[in-house]
Structure formats: structure tokens, C-alpha cells
Sequence to fold (668 residues):
Amino acid sequence: MPVGEKRLIQNIRRWARRGPTVATGIGDDCAVLRVPRGHELLVTTDFSIENVHFRRDWHSPEVAGRRCLTRGLSDIAAMGGEALAAFLSLAVASDVPQKWVDRFLKGLLDLANEFKVPLAGGDTAQSLRGMQADIVVIGSVPKGKAVLRSGAKPGDFIYVTGELGGAAAALAELELAESKRASVRLSGHVSLSGRFSVGSSRHASKGPQPRLAVGQRLRLRGVVSAMIDVSDGLSTDLEHICQESHVGAEIEAEAIPQALVRSGKRVGLEFALHGGDDYELLFTSAAKIRARVAEVRVTCIGRIMHSGGMRLIDAEGKARRLKAGGWEHFRGNL
Amino acid sequence: MPVGEKRLIQNIRRWARRGPTVATGIGDDCAVLRVPRGHELLVTTDFSIENVHFRRDWHSPEVAGRRCLTRGLSDIAAMGGEALAAFLSLAVASDVPQKWVDRFLKGLLDLANEFKVPLAGGDTAQSLRGMQADIVVIGSVPKGKAVLRSGAKPGDFIYVTGELGGAAAALAELELAESKRASVRLSGHVSLSGRFSVGSSRHASKGPQPRLAVGQRLRLRGVVSAMIDVSDGLSTDLEHICQESHVGAEIEAEAIPQALVRSGKRVGLEFALHGGDDYELLFTSAAKIRARVAEVRVTCIGRIMHSGGMRLIDAEGKARRLKAGGWEHFRGNL
Fold:
């Protein structure tokens, strides 16, 4: 085993917090977990691949690591579940600095500790190029109580937590800055360094919060008919609910909570409609839900319809067809 | 989502068998699994990376897929558990033919069906180069009954199932054939094709069997003090037992079951001692175990000692120090 891999395993063993759900953690053929009595199990896996899901020159290692685990925790939240343990399969090529890997792991484990989710195992491997991380989160939910995508009924209200489009807008800004730098380099000028600060963008900030408390609170109230996390973008994830529930949807453009960016402006509607990686919860309910759940803002953005696909109503009340156009081309959750 | 990824997800949905343990399978944020009452959960993850764990020019896609799942099932076997469901995270670059991916998946799902393990979810993603697959297997075992690596006691007998070294010997043969072809090409001769048949080697044959039935039978008898699967090689995996149990070990060279290869000869001792990827079970017991368990040969190869590391006793009774020298440089299970 290369020195880097040994150190990686040592660091994971040292930094990973134990938890009461883990009977046997790192260091055996399998981890042994205790599942709360009367609960069913939730399992989700998410690949984070360098230059597909994150870039070492765009994202700080801590943010990339944090985001890797956020994806898994957010899936547990979308079922109304609680997280029992996380597992990390990590493949690293020799061209990735050990320091970067250590900081990636720190970012991931900081979030794990924040949510008291023990890292109970995984796998390490050599990669031929870059870094690939597969995060597995195991959760649980009382038997029969998991909130699925398939329960939305015509007439239900459609709600979303927090604000949308922030992550996609920050990414677009990074892309723009890069193309500017490239064109400046091509035209022979000096680099634009300093004009664009990665440190202040959302993609480089602490990053989104998995909405575990909101998801659990909503499940406990028993009023949510369907739920999903907004990882691929509102339009794509709403389509998933429509497809699994065999319904249509109508949403109001003006109602969609558009994220505030550091300039003090709101992101454009397209970012809020189609941008991914926000990890907010999108859910439906026959009941009126109050404006804050577990200290997170909740907004009603539309209604579930009998059929007719998805429609977007503009400020003048005119309807146009809404097509799924999110980030799904980057990934496909099974 | 690229066409290839859509087709991949369709194929997984079409080919994956449902099972009674899966309350909600592919198509939601998480899979929902039922855990047998009074059972604890087993979780294992294993990365299979192209050109690290398999090569497209050496392994048939079916064998690579089958081996990918074998690694996970074998870890469940080593705890004495039963497998509840598998999850596959699969990243594929555009240079990997769709046909190859389909056949990889077929190989994996054939084994899953053989062992009645439903594929209940996972993730698909684009890769920038080659293919990376992370297999997650969830299993269960009655509470407190998981067979760990840490229970070996001085005086215990050391046993191994099946035969060892076959996979490593086949791999060495492939490496030799490749270097021969390379040197022939360099000296201007025609290719050696036909001299080496990949189809008849162990690495290209159906591949090893995960020893689930043996592991469960041994756990039920309650006589096994420690168990591990031989994935990294006998010397490395025995060292894992010694380290976790704080004991030493003495094994007899003549007792080690050396795999039969197609020439009718046995593999060399070094292959049986240090070769990986055999997926047999290595276990310790204070009791004499009969020569066949669940129709699989079981061989006593030595004894657990108070300390003194690992020693190998040769045919003349002379002892030498045995150092772990398996395949661990390729991978590091957490």
C-alpha cells in the first residue's frame, strides 16, 4: 500500500467519530450497525468525481469534501429519515497532493460531526487520474413512514425550503471568470487574478446545509405526500415527483425563492428553475404548511395537477410549458 | 443525461430482480430496506477501478462485473452474514463501449440473481477516463453474532476454505504473456495470439464464488473465533486477524491448499501465500472443523500463538518469519 493510502486510512481512523449506532466500525470486513427497533433502512450512494462534480482549481478541498457528504445526507432528509452512518470509498491518483486529500477529508468529517453521523467504513484505492469519491449514507425511518416521490395528489400544494439557484449561479460565475482569464491570456495581457475571488462565492463558501431536521419534522407531522431533494434542479426534480406520482404540476414564477448572491441581487429565474446542487427539499402537501419549519423558510410555489405535464405561470398569469432542464446530464441517481 | 447513461439506468431497472427485503428500490432518493427482526446490519463498500482492479483487455466484462460484486458478497460471508441488497455506483467514460458496460452489468446481475441479492439502487455518473465501480453490499446477522477479526485466541486452529493462489497465478500468466507479446513485437515478429488463451484462465473464467453458505454455517455452529476473507492474500489477511486479535500465528507450508491450474499442476507456494482475489474464508476455531462445510473443502493450516508475529513451518519442520506480502498495495479496505 502506498504511503499516501496508509496515511489516508490512519487519518480516517483518527478523525472519524464513533457513534452509538456503530457496533463495529473501521477495521473489519464489514461495519456492524444497530438499526433502531421498528425502523426500516434507508440507503443512498453518490459519486463525486473530479472535473465532473468538482474541480480542484474551483473548489476548496474542504468544500468539495463537505459537498460530497451533503449529497448523501440530503437524500436521507428527502425521505424524512435520520442518518445512522456514512461510508466513503475514495480513489486517489498520485498526482493529487496528500494535503488536498487530508483537507477534503476534514471538510467531509466536519459536516459528519456537525450532524453526529459516524464515518463507519469504506474503501480506499489507487486511481490512475484525479480523485473519485463515492459516499454511502445509511439512515432509518419508522416502518412504512418513508416519504416517497410517488405520493403527490392533484390539488396538493408544492413547497420548497430555502432559496434556489445560488449554487448554479456561483458556478456560472466561475465559468465566466475562467473564460475571461483564458481570453485575456490569449490576447497577451497579464492574468486577471484578484478580479474573481473564489473564496467569496457560494461554491467556495461553507456550502449548502442538508435539511435533515426539516425532513424529519415534516415526516412527523404526517402531512407531506411526496418529497425529493433539489439536487438536479427544481424543474428536473419536480418532474421526478410528477413521473413517480403520475401527476402534473403548475408553478408560479414569482413565487420561486431566488437565492441572494453577494452582490445583493437575486439570481436569475433560470438559475432558480434549472440550477442544481442546492440541496433544498421540494415537497407536496394537501395542507397549508407554515412559513418556517425547523427554522428554515418554506415557500409555496404551486399546485399539483391531474396531468398535462409541468407548467410555469408568469407574473401576468400566462402559462408556458416547463421542461426539465436541470443538471441531470452530469449524473443520474438510480 | 447522455444516451449511454439513460440506457444504463434503463438496463439496470430492467435486469435487476426485486426481493422481499426491498420495500422501495430504484427510483427514489433512497432505497428502503427491511432488516430482519433482531438482526444487526452489515455494510461493506469496494471500489473496482479500471486498470487497477481489472483490465478491459485481460478480463471479460462479465467476469469484471461478477468480480466486482464478489468482493462485496465475500465481505458479508466473512462476518457470517446474509446479504440483503446490493448498490452499484458506476462512472463510465465515453471511450468505454456501451456493449462492454452492458455485459459488465450482466455479469454482476447474474451473480446477484444466483445469490438472490436484489440490486436496489446506486448512482451513475460520467467519468473522464475508463470505468470506476463502487459496490455496496448490505447484509445482516443476528444481534451480537457477527464473526469479527478480533476473536482469535492462542491455541485456536487456523482454517481456510477452498484453494489459494489461483487468481494470482492466472494474473501472473497474463502479465507474462503480455511481456512476451511486447518483446516479440519489438523484435519484429508476428503476434503470439493463440498461444495464450484468456478464455481458459481463472481470471477470465467464471471466477471465484463468494462463500456465503460456508460463513453462515460456521457462524450458526458458534465455533468460529475470528474470520476474514482472503482478498489481499493469505499472509496479509492472516496478519489482519493477528493484529486485531493481538496474537501470533504459525502455519505449515505443506498444509496450504495450493490451487490447481489448467496445466494440471499446483500453483507455487508464493502464489498461495501472498496472492489475492481468491475470496476464500480464513478463520480460527478452538474446535476441530470437519473437512467439508456447505460442500466446500476446509483445511487446517496452522495454529494461533501467544505472540511472535507470523511464522511459516516448512516440510523439514524449520520455521521462518512470514511477512505479509499480499496485494494490499492495490487497495486498502477501511
Remarks:
- The first helix of chain A runs from residue 3 to 15.
